[in-house]
Amino acid sequence: MAEQKKNLFFYRNSQLIVPLVAIGLLLVFNLIRDPSFFSVSIGTNNDGNPVLQGNLVSILNGASELAILAMGMTLVTAASGGQDISVGCLAAIAGSVFVKVLRAGEITGWSVALGILLCCLVAMVFGCFNGTLVSVFKIQPMIATLILFTCGRSIAYWINGGATPTVSSPIITAIGSFIPGIPVPTPILIVILVGILFTVAFRLTTLRLYIQTVGINQGAAKLNGINPLRIKLLAFIILGACCSVSGVIGVSRLSLINHETLLLNVEMDAILAVAIGGNNLGGGKFNMIGSILGAYAIQALTITLYAMKVPSTDVKAYKAIVIILLVVLGSPVVKDAFRRLRIRLSGGRLTAGKGAL
Prior knowledge:
ABC transporter involved in vitamin B12 uptake, BtuC; two-stranded antiparallel ribbon; mainly alpha
C-alpha cells in the first residue's frame, strides 16, 4: 500500500515536468532578454486605489479565464477521452445572459448575483446538452460539441437582440479589475476560489476517483457500481459552470458583451493547457494543477511575445512553434526515451516499472 502511494505521488509530480519546464524556460529567457520583465510595482488605477502592476501580474491576470476553462476541460478530457471545442461559444452565451439580466433593471449586488446564478444555470444546461450527446448517444466529444461551436455565438447574439450592450457599474468593474482596497486583480482571486472549490470537492467526495475510473476503463467502472453516463454528464455540466464564470469575467473586464470576440479561439488554448499540463488527451488519470500551469505557460508566452514587439498577427505562429515543441517533449515517445536514458545513466538500478513513472 505504501509503495502504491509512493508510485502515485511520483506519477502525479512527473506530470508537472512539462508545464514547469515550459514556464522555467520562459522565465530564464526573459531574465536574459530583459531583467526588468519581472519587476512588480504598486501603482494607482483611475479611482486612485493601489494596484499591482507588472508583466507577472499581467500573466496571472490575463490567464484567469483560460485557467478556469482548463480546470473544467481537464475533467471532460479525463472522463470522456475527448475535448469540448465549444467552451468559448458557451462562455459568450453565459456572458450574454449575464448582461441581459443586468440590463433588466438597476445594477445592484442582488441583480449581479442573480445574473451570475442564471448564466451559470444556462451554461450548465448547454453543458448537459453536450454531455447527453456524448454519454447517451455515444458521439465523439469533439463532434458533439461542434454543434454548439457552430451556433453558439449566434445564440449569444440573439439573446441581446443583436446588440452589443454595455453594463456600467462599480460592481462590474470590481469583478473585472480590482476590488477597492485590494491590490490583487479580482480575476486572480476568482481563479484561486475556483481552485479551492475543486480541491474541496476532490477531498470530500469521490469525484476524482470516479472520473479517472470511467476514463481508464468504463467496463471496470460499471462492474464497480459506477455509472459512466452520469459521470460524463457531470463532467460536462461542471465545464459549463466554468464557462459561465469565465464569461462573467470576460464581460466584466470590458463592461460590455461582444458575442464575436469574447474569448475568441480560447477552445484550442484550453485543450493545449490540458495537454501541456501532462494530462492524457485520451482520458484517465489527470492532474488539474498541471492544466492550470499549462494555462499560465500559454499566457506567459503571449506576454513575452508582446514584450518583444512581435506583431499581434504573428503571435499565433510563434505560439504554434513553441507549443509543438512542448507537446513533442511531453509525448510518450520522448518520455520513454528519457526514462531509458535515466535507467542507463543510473547503471540499470531503476526497475522498468518505477522508471515508467
